[in-house]
Amino acid sequence: MYKIKILKGYKKQYRKLSKDNQMLVDTIVEKLANDQPLEEKYRDHKLKGEYKDFRECHIKPNLLLTYQREEDFLILTCVSLGSHSDLFG
Fold it and tell me: In this structure, are residues 55 and 66 in contact, taking their beta carbons and an 8 Å threshold?
């Protein structure tokens, strides 16, 4: 199981979500922390360019989770939540 590290910006974005969306995010983060594969519908994928060390999954069409796994330390870093335009301009 990965230890979960939450960044400050993520916490702020998380608090803005509805309770239903928070529960959905919690379920996805728990799966990631337990190294369980996500269903295809979440479109989990590695990012490119300056974000090449990160992954992203589509929790809902306009709700994305950006995260990073640090294999050496078994840490799942939850980086950000939001839409594509929120996260990447």
Answer: yes
Name the residues annotated as catalytic: 84
Segments making up each domain of the chain, as ranges: 3-88
Q: Which superfamily is assigned to 3-88 in CATH?
A: RelE-like (3.30.2310.20)
Whether 70 has a pLDDT exceeding 60, the answer reads yes
Q: What is the pTM of this model?
A: 0.82
For the ranges 40-44, 48-52, 77-81, 85-89, the lowest mean pLDDT is seen at: 85-89
CA distances from 44 to 19, 33, 67 (A): 23, 14, 10
